[in-house]
Design brief:
Its EC number is 3.5.2.2. By secondary structure, this protein is of the alpha/beta class. The protein has 15 helices and 20 strands. The chain starts with a strand and ends in a 15-residue tail after the last helix. The structure holds N-(aminocarbonyl)-beta-alanine and zinc ion.
Length: 484
């Protein structure tokens, strides 16, 4: 059975043109005028774009004494309902746990996925076993990215020696490290002081994680990556201090990528000062929402190219789960949702306001991510041979975001009441229509794991450069006898 998406305008990261798109066997087989096929999807008045890729989600994540509420079934359903056709989750080994055992758990959870997915592997502890297993993860398991938490002291956080050792190992393996860049020691000390002083409410979460905490950690990670000779991906870049460090590194020719979240681009710190405890706690995430100056910096970064992609860090907790932290803000599970809202929100507040062109929209929601994570053009492209992960985007469809109609299983939305214009008419995952306007046609288990190969070109270039500048002993004649 062939399908033809007919009468639309194809929008890619670099081109806009009118063409039909033919799909057979889950891939794009033809692009051009007047195509025919067994099934026709009417795209008139719509843009035909690569489906969104969310490079940062946590589905059924074990965290802060509980599990994030959306699993791979509801999370990927939410994704496709908003035009996202692939998600990348984080495999999190417990302390001392084998990376392979952790991966088995994630493999089991992800069998429920409706759309394709991949994993980043987190380095949550360090030792010879981790060092050795990293090679298997890269060479046999199709995972080329390793996440490091510089925050969450006492649970997920790694120290600088572990971080540097892992970065060096990534360099050897052709892998790329990711960092959650917040200084966990400083956060822990500020949190303890705030609690002591009676600051127990959700607003104290923001007080405990000022932008400097993020700026310091981002600078540190960039310097360590430079010394190790690896590219670096900074997740949830939320402030000018962190963006500035990334911008500076990129100007020096370093491969450093910054990932703002749709939440940080569109919501600000005033949410934490809301009189309603639930309202504020539901928005507790790390890093916290910032002020307008930081938001402007993030938008400018997307426009200028110093920031590369937009994610959600979808890690949704119910109101009941958030209430674990009544009386102690450090116990509020950190995380917010947004998987189904990322594309409509970015279109409305980015393309709709003139901050982003449609092509830039495709770049930061899909194509750049596919390239950075080494899965382009299988993903992130409207090209013959690419997977038919496609969103047929109706720029006239609009809605008011409300938890009452959302797909995610949680009982609220951080975007409640936002009006969005621009929504999917169809979302296709490898050629299968998963969404037709508001009707979900999802199929649990349709999603497949996407294996990603090591970064041979980038890492080779970086290690060649490192080799040229690496320390060498100086040959000397007449070395004096030891003074001892
Ligand atoms: N971001 C957040 O608050 N929760 C999810 C885990 C993480 O990415 O730090
Ligand atoms: Zn995260």
């Amino acid at each position: 059975m062939s399908k033809v998406i007919k009468g639309g305008t194809v929008v890619t990261a670099d081109l806009t043109y009118e063409a039909d798109v033919k799909i057979e066997g889950g891939v794009i087989t033809e692009i051009g005028p007047d195509l025919s096929g067994d099934e026709i999807l009417d795209a008139s008045g719509c843009y035909v774009m690569p489906g969104g890729i969310d490079p940062h989600v946590h589905l059924e994540m074990p965290f802060m004494g509980t599990y994030s509420a959306d699993d791979f079934a509801s999370g990927t359903r939410a994704a496709v309902s908003g035009g996202t056709t692939m998600v990348v989750d984080f495999c999190l080994p417990d302390p001392g746990q084998s990376l392979m055992d952790a991966l088995m758990r994630w493999d089991n959870k992800s069998t429920l996925a409706t759309c394709d997915y991949s994993f980043h592997m987190a380095i949550t502890w360090w030792g010879e076993q981790v060092f050795n297993e990293m090679e298997t993860v890269v060479r046999e398991k199709g995972i080329n990215t390793f996440k490091h938490f510089l925050a969450y002291k006492g649970s997920l956080m790694v120290n600088d020696d572990e971080l540097f050792a892992s970065f060096q190992r990534c360099a050897e393996l052709g892998a790329m490290p990711l960092v959650h860049a917040e200084n966990g020691d400083v956060v822990a000390s500020m949190s303890a002081k705030l609690l002591e002083e009676g600051n127990v409410g959700p607003e104290a979460h923001a007080y405990s994680r000022p932008p400097e905490v993020e700026g310091e950690a981002t600078n540190r990670a960039i310097m360590l990556a430079d010394m190790a000779g690896v590219p670096l991906y900074v997740v949830h870049t939320s402030c000018e201090q962190s963006h500035e460090a990334i911008r500076r590194a990129r100007q020096k020719g370093m491969r450093v990528y910054g990932e703002p979240l749709i939440q940080h681009l569109t919501l600000d710190e005033s949410e934490y000062f809301d009189k309603d405890w639930d309202h504020a706690a539901r928005r507790v995430m790390s890093p916290p929402f910032r002020n307008k100056m930081h938001q402007d910096s993030l938008w400018a970064g997307l426009q200028a190219g110093s920031l590369s992609c937009v994610a959600t860090d979808h890690c949704a907790f119910t109101t009941d789960q958030k209430r674990y932290g009544v009386g102690d803000f450090t116990k509020i599970p950190n995380g917010t949702g947004g998987l189904e809202d990322r594309l409509p929100m970015l279109w409305t507040y980015g393309v709709g306001t003139g901050r982003l062109t449609m092509n830039e929209f495709v770049a930061v929601t899909s194509t750049n991510i596919a390239k950075i994570l080494n899965m382009y053009p299988k993903k992130g492209a409207i090209l013959v041979g690419a997977d038919a992960d496609i969103v047929v985007w109706d720029p006239k469809r609009s809605k008011t975001i409300t938890a009452a109609n959302q797909v995610s299983t949680i009982d609220y939305s951080v975007f409640e009441g936002k009006e969005v214009t621009g929504l999917p008419r169809f979302t296709l995952s490898r050629g299968k229509v998963m969404v037709e306007e508001s009707t979900l046609k999802t199929e649990e288990g349709h999603g497949e794991f996407v294996a990603r190969q090591p970064y041979t070109a980038v890492n080779k270039a970086l290690s060649t450069w490192k080799e040229l500048v690496s320390p060498r002993p100086i040959a000397r004649s007449g070395i004096p006898p030891s003074g001892v």
